[in-house]
Amino acid sequence: MVKLLAIGHIYVNAYRASSLAVKINTHWRIACCAGRRCASRRWLPLFRGLVASWATLGVVVADTGLFTKVTQLSKSEAQATGIPPQTSELGVDNSVLLSPPAGANFDGETIPLVPESFDFTVVASPSIKLGDSLASDVGTTQSLGDTLSEAALCPPESQLRQPWWHASLALNRAENGRVTDLAELVWQAVSHSPNIQAILLEPQILDARAAKELGEFDVNSFVDSIFRDTSDPVGNTLTTGGPPRLNESLWENRAGIRNKNQHGGRTEFFQEFLTKDNNSRFFDPREQADSRMVLRYTQPLMRGRGLTYNRASFVVATITANQGKYQASLALQDHTFQLTTAYWDLYAAQGEMLQIERGIENLQLLYQQLQGRSEIDSLRSQVLRAEAAIHKQTAALAQAQARWTIAQANLKAAVAAPDLLCSADYIVPIAPVVTCPSNIDLQHERLQALEQQPKIQEARQAVRSVRTRLHVAENELKPTLNLVMEGYLRGLSGDYDVIESLGDQFTKTPSYHAGVAYQRPRRNIAAQSILHERRMELRKSLLQLDNILLSVSADVEGAVAMVQSAYQQLDSAVRSTLATEAEVQYLDAIWRDAFLGGARTTSLQLDQLLNAHIQLISSENNWIRAEQDYMLAHARLQLVTGSLLPCLTAADAVHSN
Questions:
Q1: Threshold 0.85, pTM exceeds
Q2: 51: exposed, middle or buried (C-beta count within 10 Å: 0-12, 13-18, 19+)?
Q3: Of 39, 200, 294, 395, which one has the greatest count of Cβ atoms within 10 A?
Q4: What is the pLDDT of residues 326-370, one digit of tens each?
C-alpha cells in the first residue's frame, strides 16, 4: 500500500508539473489517428484501449485533486465549441469524459469521437461509487493516499448491504433454478427427511414404554375352574364312618377381578362356587353346591405405601421419555444446522462463481488489449502473464463449481423432499443476508439457553429421575406392615343346585376378618445398599448438571464472540474489497497511460495490475465467505441457546407424517 501511495503521489505531481492541456491534446490526437485507421482491424484494439484509457484517466484526475484544472479546461473547450459541460453521476463533468465533442476538427479534418461500429460503454462497479466514497467534496484537493484511506475506513452502509453479486444472484433467481427459502427447506426436511423421521419416532417409542408402566394399575379379571376326583386311604374311621377309602369328586369354579391402586392397596373381589360329593357317611347333604362371594383388601401402611412409591416406575419412564424428546430436539437442531450450513455453502459457492467469472472477464479484456497492442508496445511475456492469470482463475472457477455441486447434493440429501430429489432444477438460495451489526446481550442469551437448551433440560430430567428413585429407596428401607381385611357371603344346597346356593348366600349373615402383617429384615443390607447407591447417583447427576451449565455458558459466550468476530471480518472484508477495487482502477489508469513512459515501466505496471485483479477476486471471495461465516455464526448461536428449531412433540411428528 505504501508503494501504491508513493506511485500515486508521483503520478499526481507529474501531471501537475506538466501541461495538462498538452497531454490531453496528445491523447486525443493519438486516438483520432487510430480512429482514421479503424478500417484496419489490427488498429481497432489500440483505439479501444486509448479511448478506455482516456475515460479512466478522466475519472482518476477527477478523484485525485485535479478536478478543478480539468473542469476549467473543459469549460474553456465548451466555450470554444458552444456545448455546455454536463455533470455525470460520478460527480465529474461529462465534458471531461467526452471532450472534445463529437465532430471536433483536427488538422483540418472532422473526425467523429467514436466510430459508429465501436460500442463504447463506461461501466461503474456497483460495489463502489467513486463520487460518493472517494471524495466527499469534489472541490477540495487531496492526495490519492488520503482518498484510498477514506474509501477503506468509511464504506457507505448501502455498499455493505448490497454488493454487486446480490443483484446478480437475484437475476439468476428470476431466470434459472428453483427459488427456495431456508425456512421452507427446514420444514420440508421435517416432513420428508428419513433421519428426522427416525429422530421423531424415538420419543413416541419412549412414550409407549412409559404408558406400559401404568398397566400395573389396570383392573384384571380372572376365571378359575378346576375339577378333582380323588381316592385316598382313610386313617381315621371318623372320616368316612366305615369305608377304608375316601372317594371324592370336587369341581371348583371362581370368577372375579383384581386391582392394585396407586396408593399400594390390592383389592380382590370374586364369586366362588363348587360342587362336591364323596362316600363319607357323615357328608350331608349329598351332591352339595357351595357358593361364596369374597371381598379382600390389603393396604401397605409403611413400606410400599403412597403415590410416590407406587407411581415411581411410571414417573421414571415418563422422565426417560422427556429426556428422549430433548435428545430428539438436539438431534433435530443438529440436522437443521447441517442443513443451514449446506444452504450458506451453496450461497457462497454460487457467489464465488459469479465473482470469478467477472474477474475472468476483466482479465480477458486486459488480455485482448495486450494482444491488440502487441505490435506497438506490449511484450510477449506480458501476454503470457495475462494468459496464465486467466487459466489460474479458470481452475479456481472449476473448484467453485465443484463446491456448488457438492453443496447442492448435500442440501438435497438433508431435505430429502421427493420433488427436490427427482427434479433436475438446482436450488437458488433467497434467504436475506444479515450485514448489520447485531446487538447481542450475553446475559439474555445465557438465560435463553438456560430455558431452551436441550442438553440442560435433559440433565434436569436426569436429576429428577434419580431423585424419584431415591425416594423409592428411602421407602424400601422401612419395614413391611400391611393391613389385611376380608369379608364374604356363603350359601349351601344339595343336589348340585347352584342357583339355590347363590341365592342362599344373600340371605345369611356375612362373615369378615381383619388384621395386620409385619415383616422386617434383621440388618436390611439390600435396602441400605440401594439407598447409598441412589444418593451417589444423585450427587453424580448434580455434578453433571453443573458441568453442562458451565459448558453451555462457555458455548454461548464463545458463540456471541464468534458473531461479533464474524461481523468484524465481514466489515474488514468489505473495506478490503473497496480499497482493492480502488487500487485496480488506479493501476488500470496508470497502466493504460504507461506506454508513454517506455516498455520497462509498462511491464512493472502490468504485474501490479494483474496482481490487483487477482487480489480483487480474492477479496470478493473473502467478502462472500465472511457473509457466510456471519450467517453461520448467528445459526450457531441459536444452536447453542437451543432456539434454532423448537422442540417437536410426538403429536407434531404424527402431524408431519
A1: no
A2: buried
A3: 200
A4: 999 999 999 999 999 999 999 899 888 988 888 898 888 888 877
